[in-house]
Amino acid sequence: MITQRRVGWIQEHLDEMLTKYDGLSPEEQAYRIVFFDHMKINPSHSKMVQVSPRKIKIESHNFCPYLEACRHLGLDTRYVCQDIGEPSTQKMIEVINPNLRFSRNYDNIRPRNGAFCEEYIELLFRFPKLASPTSYSRIR
Length: 140
What we know:
With 140 residues, the chain is α+β, with helices and mostly antiparallel strands.
């Protein structure tokens, strides 16, 4: 249900969001769409660093309902986030661009490190620039 709701939102707003973030790399587009527009994270609570030409690292300091639920229930965020949070985020990112992959460093997430969750968005490969949008639709 979480994945369906998230993917539905992305599908409904994708054209508008891609226009809004035109000119940014696919990784940064996905980051801004998912974190700021969908999850409504305050940009001051999230730090993005380019770690390679096709990969960004995100330090999330924002309020997290999964973290709070795990604290109250005595659950390990490594397992809850990997089983519930990560798959739905990956599906959203795949709708934005099927060549993007979302991941977390489970050795560096809250509350284990106390400060932030370390996440990544990576573009697996880039398509060459094409002459027209119809050329792109043939290779999708």
